[in-house]
Amino acid sequence: MNIVLLGATGSIGESTLKVIRKHRDRLNLVGIAANQNIEKLAQIAYEFGVPHVGIFDESAYATAKAGTAFPVTTQLHCGLAGLEELAALPAADTTLVAVVGTHGLLPALRAIEAGKTLAVASKEILVLAGKFIMQAAQKSGSLILPVDSEHNAIFQCLNPNPPSERSDSQRSTQHVDKLILTASGGSFRDLPVEQLKHVTLEQALQHPNWDMGPKVTIDAATMANKGLEMIEARWLFGMRAEQVQAVIHPQSIVHSMVQYVDGSVLAQLCPPDMTFAIQHCLLYPDRGAGVVAPLDFSQAMQLDFHAPDLQRYPCLALARQAMEACGVANGIFNAANEVAVEAFVSGKLKFVEIAAIIEKTLDSIENVEPSSLDEVLHYDQLARQNAANFVQKI
Ligand code: MG
Questions:
Q1: Disulfide check for 121: which of 111, 147, 274, 317 has CB 3.0–4.6 Å away?
Q2: Which residues lie at CB < 5 A from ion ligand 1?
Q3: Ligand 1 centre and the CA of 150: distance in Å?
Q4: Ligand 1 centroid – CA 51 distance (Å)
Q5: Which tens digits make up the pLDDT trace of 132-142?
């Protein structure tokens, strides 16, 4: 299996490399890309003998082109166009997109149009352009495999016996009543709600279970992350808004569940480590020994579940509102959240003000049904401007 990895230097990228290292006889890295970390990209290129390297940042690309960091045989690709080339690389079977923000959107679409299997890690892709991505996949027959642990869990619960041919039907959602996404509840799940006013960035970055980047860790604390995942799940699995639920599960062992109309619930369990979901995607429909030790049921284990308190997690209610409105509201929620989190990280906003910025931004733009990706991106920009203005005024 030939793999292209967009976002090779981030947290998902690192976990993906662990999986490839473990299964070098079955997985071959043919392309990698990152924003600007030339040193790390060069290291990966040497270790895995990667022929194609994409560098998003143009000045970093120029530096790499002029320097000697990479093997002489490496072909360098520049900017967004470079990422699009890599995504559709003729040699690739699977393109894994784990690019931060909205820059993964066009490369993901190129991969689908070229008939590659798309392993999707960047939430923005489906949140912003779920309609267009799913349409394109239907047209090209591309398989979309979810890397996010919750969606990967749901995918596995919907396909307990994967087809032997990769080109077979993506999944069956017949008889599904609802999808239940589990959430850790983030850094402040046990803090009295009135103390949320005083929490610091440092405290927000202490995630109880997962080791992730700062943006996702803060999104886990507000549960905006789960909101984005609900929207993503809706598109991926063709559900109605009311069929997608979130539940707090502090242990992060059950990664999500599918409840069928007869009341049966299927769940996927494994330790909270991204290599499980990534490996499932890269080896699919095959399986192989995992990178880290599996669950050990000879040890006592407790699994708890409870409904999220919307006083504590107002971002979750806003996400549901956006999901129900559909149209460009999904992207507006995402953009406003991104701006608000950045402002919190740089000390311009309090933790509890993140939700207020999202709410104001959603209210400031009339929701429409987008007819093109350009329109989606236009509303993304507009939402960012509005959110930035609201941050200034707060
Ligand atoms: Mg997740």
A1: 147
A2: 148-150
A3: 5
A4: 31
A5: 999 999 999 99
